[in-house]
Structure formats: C-alpha cells, structure tokens
Design brief:
Elements: H1 3-18, H2 25-43, H3 55-74, H4 81-97, H5 128-138, E1 141-143, H6 146-155, E2 159-161
Parallel strand pairs: 1-2
Length: 177
C-alpha cells in the first residue's frame, strides 16, 4: 500500500464518519479506522519518515493521517496511543527538516505536488498545515505560524504557541538522512 491507498480510505472514512445514516456506514467506518491504524505502522518508519523516501510524500500522507485523527476525534473517539506516537514522530521529522523561520521542507525524492486539502495557496514544499494539525493532535497546541492562527480560528480547539526549534544535528537512520 502507498499514498494512493490512503487517499482512497481517507475519502471512505470522511463519508462514513459524516453520513452515519448510510447503510453499512458504521461497519465501514470501523473497518477503515482500523486500516489507518495498520497503515501508519506500515508506511511510517520508526524514525518518523515516510517509507517511500520522499519528503513531499511524507507531507502528503502526514496530512491524511492527521485529518483521519481529526475526523475520528470529531466522531467522539481516539486512535490508539501508538497511532499518536507515530504521528508525533512524523511531526518531529518535518519540524527538524524545516528551513529556519518557515515550515518549508527540502525536496528529497519525488514531488507530485499532492495535497489532501488546501485552505490557502502555499508553496509546494510548505508543510505548515501538516505541522500545525499534527501539533494540535499530539501536543494540543498550534505552532505560532499563519496556519496555526487560521486553524485555531477555524477549529477553536487549541492555543497557538511559539515553538523554539533548535537546529542541532538530528539523524533519521530509517529514512536515510
């Protein structure tokens, strides 16, 4: 399975979470919630990088994993602690690679400019949206960026805080950097 499969199942999860009156919606919701639990373990390496070896695919699947968690939480449920731990490692990976003063990632590997949702136009390598969503889901706060302010306004569920990011040397041996 790859990011294409996640794209398929995020759609099914969204429909079944928001339309429980559909026949079999509850059964399919449970099934595809379980698929996200499996896929985060399959697709995200222990160091938090995406197994496809691309920072852009990392951002794309990160958005899908974060949006799935948001949908599940809005449905009154949670994923397992393991899911949130892996999502947090994805956040650390992206935050560590981000250029100082922005959330732009270096391009390593493929880039097909894929996005799940784009509230506002932004540069193709800017993953502030994912970083802020995963921060809210794992740290229960938004990063002090433009997108953090927008998400805080839209969702109203978290404070926006300044995060200091030291640029010490960090290694991601599973990803290979």
């Amino acid at each position: 399975t790859y990011n294409h499969y996640l794209g398929d199942i995020i759609g099914i999860l969204a429909i079944t979470a928001s339309c429980p009156f559909f026949e079999k919606a509850k059964v399919l919701y449970r099934q595809y919630k379980g698929e996200f639990e499996k896929e985060i373990r399959r697709q995200i390496l222990p160091d938090g990088g995406d197994f496809e070896g691309s920072t852009c695919y990392h951002g794309l699947v990160g958005e899908m994993f974060a949006l799935a968690a948001l949908m599940v939480e809005n449905h009154g449920e949670m994923f397992t602690k393991s899911y949130y731990d892996r999502l947090y490692r994805m956040l650390v990976f992206s935050s560590s690679l981000a250029k100082q003063g922005s959330e732009e990632q270096p391009q390593i590997g493929d880039n097909d400019s894929g996005r799940v949702i784009e509230i506002l136009p932004h540069p193709p390598l800017d993953y502030a949206w994912f970083i802020n969503m995963s921060s809210m889901l794992t740290e229960r706060c938004y990063r002090d960026t433009y997108y953090g302010d927008i998400l805080s306004f839209m969702l109203g569920t978290s404070d926006t805080v300044k995060k200091e990011t030291g640029k010490e040397k960090i290694f991601f041996p599973d990803f290979g950097i």
